[in-house]
Automatic annotation (TrEMBL):
It comes from Eruca vesicaria subsp. sativa. This is GST N-terminal domain-containing protein. It holds the Pfam family GST_N_3. Residues 135-217, 254-333 form the GST N-terminal domain. It comes from the Eukaryota. PANTHER family: THIOREDOXIN FAMILY PROTEIN.
């Protein structure tokens, strides 16, 4: 769980926000601040010449019903392209550390408890987690960066919840912050408010996270030095150019909450858009073996990812293709 409030690292930056689909005035200055509860997602400090911007869902919007293993018409090639990276990375980012699975009888696990159920087969999944950070770790990165992918895979292995600040090329808000905080625009950049540690370099971040929030073990697929970066780069081949460049957007006052994991192609398609629109989001990582799968089941009445919670509009929804449409309609400038 995420506990304690976390303020953006110094220096604080107030960012301009405007919205055509909002009750607003021409200009409002907003500082994003994560809160202790992902469902509430954030508190906001504002300085404005009048009212605070209030985002609303697109007219007539209705969250879709979740459809297990369904691919929207016309989106199959996108899903296959996103899945190529998982194969190239040998499944890294699919399982939590210490993952194990065992077949059990269908009555062994109650209906309100998460289990992998396919037909008449029931599989119980478990994992072994290290210490949990009290405050969400903050990472500045972008989807198309192979070094960033390495860190995201380690986040999945450790089942960490992360406050991501997307930094696509050409973005006006969080890229400059990295330069101010660390002295250069290099990604990924991590800030851990639990320890005061901030650092560049993907291998160093991976080692740090493993030692602090795991058992100190780094998976072989993330321990091959330059070869890891090369393979991670090849993993982007199916989605070349996606998640790299900024699309003009309206910055929300609260970070979105995104239930997902690195190894899911459906989640990756949504992440690309979150990054391109430079939308801050709290990732609630829930790969195979994650206890947060049970949390989402209780929260939404169904487990399926990606799942988006938007505290700015009150929208909660499944289905990757519809989430992408919603994000573009709500936040694209």
């Amino acid at each position: 769980m995420l506990v304690n409030s976390v303020l953006l690292p110094q220096p604080s930056i107030f960012l301009p926000v405007s919205s055509s689909r909002s009750r607003s005035v021409p200009r409002t200055l907003v500082m994003v601040k994560a809160s202790s509860e992902p469902s509430d997602s954030a508190s906001v400090s504002t300085k404005s010449t009048s009212d605070v911007v209030v985002f609303t869902a697109p007219p007539g919007f209705k969250p879709p019903e979740p459809k297990r293993f369904a691919v929207k018409e016309g989106k199959l090639l996108d899903v296959l392209g996103a899945a190529i990276g998982v194969l190239i990375r040998f499944g890294t980012g699919v399982f939590v550390s210490g993952y194990s699975a065992s077949f059990v009888s269908k009555d062994a696990i109650p209906a309100d408890q998460y289990a992998l159920r396919i037909g008449g087969i029931t599989v119980k999944e478990t994992s072994k987690l290290g210490p949990r950070p009290e405050k969400p770790i903050e990472i500045y990165e972008f989807e198309g960066c192979p070094f960033c992918r390495k860190v995201r895979e380690m986040v999945t292995v450790l089942d960490l919840d992360i406050l991501y600040f997307p930094c696509p090329r050409g973005s006006p808000n969080f890229r400059p912050m990295v330069n101010q905080m660390g002295g250069k625009q290099q990604f990924p950049y991590m800030v851990d408010p639990n320890t005061g540690v901030s650092m560049y370099e993907s291998d160093g971040i991976i080692k740090y996270l493993s030692e602090k929030y795991g058992d100190g073990t780094v998976p072989l697929s993330l321990s091959l030095g330059p070869l890891t970066a090369i393979i991670a780069g090849l993993a982007t081949i199916g989605r070349l150019g996606k998640g790299n460049l900024y699309t003009p957007a309206k910055l929300p006052p609260k970070p979105l909450v995104f239930w997902a994991y690195e190894g899911s192609p459906f989640c990756k398609l949504v992440r690309e858009v979150l990054v391109e629109l430079e939308l801050p989001h709290i990732l609630r990582s829930c790969a195979r073996g994650s206890p947060k799968r049970q949390e989402l089941l209780l929260k939404a009445g169904h487990f399926q990812v990606p799942y988006l919670e938007d505290p700015n509009t009150g929208v909660n929804m499944f289905e990757s293709a519809e989430i992408i449409e919603y994000l573009k309609q709500t936040y694209a400038a």
